[in-house]
Q: What sequence folds into this?
């Protein structure tokens, strides 16, 4: 598939879009915990210093403060690395954001093994699982920087809690301004009738690579960009299960509880078909280059293609 | 602030009785930390707070965050007596379908924030104050916390932020009743020197007898006058289970309801 521009990190799409939103909506504010440079929230800080609050390295305080600001009618963005936000401040996300149903947008970068050299402590592989089990929380993982910008606008426009998972590293850009984006509506990136490959984030690109590999072997794989993990596009999943009869999910996340689990919940209850899940297998990450780690943890297009051939045998 | 001391004392007595009845009737709940906070909340709602029980969402109201969210008996009794809702609701306290949940929620008119996990309220109060500042609103924000609660690290994250942002319209109230679930607070994890601790975090701190209305009302009255540029904390020395001899300073009444005989004995002491 044609790349629309040079690769870019999805955090950049967020950082630029939230500034655009801030210019037209003075009710958008931000609370940060000293990682705004890395999350790109600092673009907003530079533009709107009066609407930007840092609480220092205190994720729990960041989330609670954001809930208070939201109760005054603001649309509040908080930002951090996925590990620190979803793990350190989980109780605050559960209570102050989800249980209180406050208008807080939780933006997390540095998700997945592609964080790279910083190693396992920084590579969040459980955030989608943690976030999607919370009532009121919706979960988005855009596939490229253009889509991240659209998602930023979409979550600001809808009241209530959202979690958005973003990457540290530059990843291929495959959408453009004209590509539709609607929360909860998956996008068909490539048509095919033999098997469906469903990914989110970087794994949409890897799924497209897998489809290329498979097509050389006469297998026509459909590729779905499941940018919204919750509320998940149930209709699309059932349609793909019925039309292709086999599904492979892929994600830069643990197998348990993430995209694959969310898809499986729909499949087994509505239209059971064989599935394979390409994901991290209940282990922590480690230091290495992003590319080395994708290979080590079996998250490349070649791994997805192998999983597709395996699932086809069970069809 | 002018006030009728004997009327306040009568009200405190009524609320203590309702705390015991509510927990007795529900068969569960948290009487100990409710009884310790009676004067603190009665004085706040009757003498200080800018609020309108007939219009709980009035945009310029002062806001109270009940961070020790388990003390629903005292909170509901104070709110009902202030006129936020009918005492008919007491029947469904802690029961399915009621608006009076086991820990405070916004289902109850007058409750601003769902809590129940400790250490959440002060950050939210700070956020409310920052938002009020952006909107140029003249509001005050109160946060009731337990002494055991402030063992939570998140309280001190928020304490640092309150001072950093110079939130002089935030008033934290520490119900220092000396007892937590498993024993004496200062034996489990010592809070002392508590006043100096808050001061070292940049707060204007006052320490009072939290059962003496004159002292409580003076502390509220000074808030907003003496603490320019600093958040304000009232360290209220109280007695867990105050007013019922067999409950006072007894950890077993943190989260247990009186049975029929115990209720009768307690009521006798309060009458």
A:
């Amino acid at each position: 598939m044609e790349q629309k521009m040079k690769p870019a990190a999805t955090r950049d799409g967020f950082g630029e879009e939230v500034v655009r939103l801030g210019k037209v909506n003075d009710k958008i504010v931000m609370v940060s915990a000293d990682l705004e440079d890395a999350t790109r929230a600092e673009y907003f800080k530079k533009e709107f210093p009066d609407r930007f609050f840092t609480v220092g390295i205190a994720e729990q305080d960041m989330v609670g403060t954001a809930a208070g600001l939201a109760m005054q009618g603001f649309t509040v963005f908080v930002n951090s690395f996925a590990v620190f936000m979803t793990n350190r401040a989980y109780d605050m996300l559960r209570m102050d954001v989800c249980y209180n149903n406050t208008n807080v947008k939780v933006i997390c970068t540095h998700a997945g093994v592609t964080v790279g050299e910083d190693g396992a402590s920084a590579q969040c592989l459980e955030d989608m699982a943690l976030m999607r089990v919370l009532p009121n929380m919706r979960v988005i993982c855009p596939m490229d920087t253009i889509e991240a910008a659209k998602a930023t606008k979409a979550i600001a426009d809808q009241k209530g809690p959202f979690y958005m998972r973003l990457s540290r590293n530059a990843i291929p850009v495959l959408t453009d301004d004209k590509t539709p984006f609607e929360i909860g509506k998956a996008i068909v990136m490539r048509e095919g009738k033999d098997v469906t490959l469903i990914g989110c984030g970087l794994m949409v690109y890897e799924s497209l690579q897998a489809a290329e590999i498979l097509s050389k072997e006469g297998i026509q794989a459909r590729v779905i960009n499941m940018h919204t993990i919750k509320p998940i596009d149930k209709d699309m999943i059932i349609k793909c299960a019925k039309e292709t009869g086999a599904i492979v999910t892929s994600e830069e996340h643990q197998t348990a509880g993430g995209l694959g689990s969310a898809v499986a919940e729909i499949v087994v209850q509505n239209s059971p078909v064989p599935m394979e899940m390409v994901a991290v297998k209940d282990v922590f990450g480690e230091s290495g280059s992003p590319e080395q780690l994708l290979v080590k943890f079996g998250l490349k297009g070649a791994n997805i293609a192998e999983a597709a051939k395996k699932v086809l045998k069970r069809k | 602030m002018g006030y009728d001391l004997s009327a306040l004392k009568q009200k405190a007595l009524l609320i203590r009785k309702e705390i015991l009845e509510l927990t007795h009737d529900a068969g569960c709940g948290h009487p100990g930390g409710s009884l310790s906070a009676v004067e603190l909340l009665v004085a706040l709602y009757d003498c200080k707070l800018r609020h309108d029980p007939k219009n709980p969402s009035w945009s310029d109201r002062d806001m109270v965050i009940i961070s020790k969210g388990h003390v629903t008996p005292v909170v509901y009794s104070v709110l009902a007596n202030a006129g936020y809702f009918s005492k008919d609701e007491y029947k469904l306290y802690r029961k399915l379908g009621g608006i009076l949940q086991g820990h405070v929620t916004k289902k109850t008119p007058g409750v601003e924030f769902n809590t129940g996990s400790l250490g959440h309220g002060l950050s939210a109060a700070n956020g409310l104050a920052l938002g009020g500042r952006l909107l140029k609103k003249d509001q005050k924000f109160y946060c009731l916390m337990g002494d055991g609660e402030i063992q939570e690290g998140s309280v001190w994250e928020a304490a640092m932020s309150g001072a950093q942002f110079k939130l002089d319209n935030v008033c934290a109230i520490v119900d220092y009743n000396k007892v937590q679930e498993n024993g004496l607070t200062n034996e489990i994890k010592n809070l002392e020197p508590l006043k100096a601790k808050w001061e070292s975090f940049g707060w204007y701190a006052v320490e009072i007898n939290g059962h003496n209305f004159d002292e409580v009302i003076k502390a509220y009255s000074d808030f907003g006058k003496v603490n320019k540029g600093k958040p304000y904390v009232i360290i209220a020395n109280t007695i867990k289970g105050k007013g019922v001899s067999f409950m006072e300073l007894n950890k077993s009444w943190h989260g247990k309801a009186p049975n029929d005989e115990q209720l009768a004995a307690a009521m006798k002491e309060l009458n």
Summary: Chain A is about 40% helix and 20% strand. Chain A has two domains: 5-173, 187-313. The longest strand of chain A covers residues 247-254. Residues 187-313 of chain A form a domain with the Rossmann fold fold (CATH 3.40.50.920).
